[in-house]
Amino acid sequence: MLRVTLRSDEFGAEWPLEQPGEILTLLFLPAGEEIVLPEQGWRFPEGAPEQAWRNYTVRSHRPEIGEIDIDVVLHTPRGPACTWADASEIGASVGYAGPRIDFAPVDDADWLLLCGDETALPSIAAILETAPPQLPVTAIIEVRDAADEIPVTLGDAQTLRWVHRETDATGTTDHLAAALRALALPDGDGQAWGAGESKIARDLRGVLRDEHGLPKTHARARGYWLRTGEWDLDE
Is 111-233 assigned to CATH 3.30.70.260? Predict the structure, then answer.
């Protein structure tokens, strides 16, 4: 992962960030191209250059200095986002739209379960760091191996389990679904949220709703990316 810090006067205390892990849509352009933002209705003016937009998580927000952090997963083949992040110098420009809420806590939840791969890690870490201290939270995250684990600040009521896929290709395993299937859920009404490769996210929803019996309103797993061809995380 590569952490990118974005600064703007608009990222102050009035910036409408309501929940942890909100989505920011970023615009990437080749070097030398001028950013042209869309008009209302997401329509671009005539003659605007071809543009690539990708969704990313707001990892952290420092309103007092107008900064936010975005964690970019580096992968092969390179897409426009990680190409931009890896090549950009301090002071480079990027367009954005948002933010918008992705995870929203359920008021009546007695506990919280989080799960996902590296692409969900920024959201999961942000949720863990801002959850009410008395709320029991369990997080299960799949990464390649121990070298890809990152420090996450945990509260007294929080636990984090890392699942390693080792030599298995990214987005092809059932490790997360198996870990959820084997998990003994706490008593009471809980909420589950996860994200990752689209097909795996579908399997996670099945385990949470069909096997653990969580209602759809309390169990979500979002497809953050779709494996096609030889897409894989960089070594």
Answer: no
